[in-house]
Design a protein that fits this description.
114 residues; mainly alpha; 2 helices
């Protein structure tokens, strides 16, 4: 009977040690697993989704539309200024020169030009 009790104690201690060792290993694996899951979840929160990209492109599209509209307005303003200088400025200069010539003619006769 003592032999049976001794054998039982031996196997009980052996299984207890193996159980504790397995429990420790499972704890380590669980910790590593949780750490990796946390890393994955953190990376997923930083990842840009398709909806985020659509929203960003919509905002960019709106900004670029405004910028291109401003550029087009500036181009039109430059075109208008060039047309003014090309067509109307010479006529104004001609009128100014003509008016000055009349003033000169009136001044030479000592008359007031009206």
């Amino acid at each position: 009977m003592d032999q049976t009790i001794s054998d039982s104690k031996f196997w009980l201690e052996k299984y207890t040690k193996a159980y504790k060792e397995n429990d420790r290993k499972i704890g380590e694996m669980q910790g590593e697993f949780n750490g990796r899951l946390d890393t994955i979840f953190f990376q997923l929160t930083r990842r840009v989704t398709v909806d985020d990209m659509k929203k960003n492109f919509d905002k960019l599209n709106d900004m670029l539309f405004i910028k291109f509209k401003q550029v087009e307005d500036n181009k039109q303003a430059v075109r208008d200024m060039l047309n003014y200088q090309k067509y109307f400025y010479p006529m104004q200069m001609q009128a100014i020169v003509g008016e000055n010539m009349m003033n000169l003619e009136a001044a030479m006769k000592d008359q007031a030009f009206v």
